[in-house]
Design brief:
single chain, alpha+beta, Jelly Rolls, 7-stranded antiparallel beta sheet, 5 helices
Length: about 260
């Protein structure tokens, strides 16, 4: 990426709290193998010999509910390869100015296409920082959300509140809330802030990056096809677990095979 383009992208990321890379950054063949690996995990097949971490969704659960599987790279060689693909780390470093970027936690997400509101496939408005208390305040943490299917307006794309990261940690939001409209009204955002919703429309292999404090959520998938993605949670050299403990979401950071350094180191 030319230096001028990097500067423009970083400026936009810092201003908005997110950045959309709306062209594929991975080879088609690698994307295909990653999707195959994702589906194998959903069947309970682990080609590495390791299972994922304990998860809200497990093989055999209702396929018409939101599938969220923790640390899928433990179980799939193809997903590990996807995380290490150089373009991902290069984009992460370009947006943050980091000298080191590590993938410290990954989530496999499949949002099924369903018209049944009882299936609870929405993702409520939230700031990731709310769930990341293992990290010290001020740690530089962010997420790369990798589209593994075509993410259209109809497929329930992730939606960001532009500039909401500048409001600080609000101690509000709930990943599992289903009534997004009522929830947003209750966020108590400052009336002086005109916060715009932006949908992350992406092709397979496109990536959105967002700050730990950026509010985001997503509605139902009405596309007729499942929406597949990986949420790759990242840290830079400007991060540290509380009391430097290897616990909770930071318990694997000393294992570069499972939590790879995707830039630097």
């Amino acid at each position: 990426m030319p230096s001028s383009s990097k500067e423009q992208a970083r400026t936009a990321y810092e201003r908005n709290g997110f950045y959309l890379v709306q062209e594929p950054i991975f080879p088609d063949e690698l994307l295909r193998r990653a999707v195959d690996g994702m589906e194998a995990i959903r069947r309970g097949e682990y080609d590495t010999g390791l299972p994922p971490q304990p998860s809200p969704w497990n093989p055999g659960d209702d396929p018409n509910t939101l599938c969220k599987i923790e640390q899928p790279q433990f179980a799939s060689h193809a997903i590990r390869e996807l995380l290490r693909y150089p373009a991902l780390g290069e984009w992460a470093a370009a947006l943050t100015g980091a000298s080191m970027v590590q993938a410290w936690w990954v989530q496999l997400l499949v949002k099924p296409s369903t018209a049944d509101p009882e299936k609870k496939t929405n993702i409520g408005w939230h700031q990731d920082r709310h769930y990341w208390g293992i990290w010290e305040d001020g740690s530089e943490l962010f997420t790369a959300w990798i589209a593994l299917s075509d993410v259209t307006e109809e497929s329930g794309p992730m939606r960001f509140l532009r500039g909401s990261h500048k409001l600080g940690y609000r101690q509000q939001g709930d990943f599992y809330e289903q009534d997004l409209e009522a929830q947003r009204e209750g966020l108590r955002l400052p009336e002086s802030e005109a916060v715009e919703e932006v949908a992350a429309i992406l092709p397979p292999g496109g990536v959105s990056f967002h700050d730990r404090l950026t509010f985001h959520g997503s509605g139902p998938n009405r596309s007729g096809s499942p929406r597949r993605s990986l949420a790759v949670h990242l840290r830079t050299q400007n991060s540290r677990p509380v009391e430097d403990k290897r616990a909770g979401l930071a318990q694997f950071i000393d294992d570069p095979e499972l939590c790879p350094f995707i830039y630097g180191e």
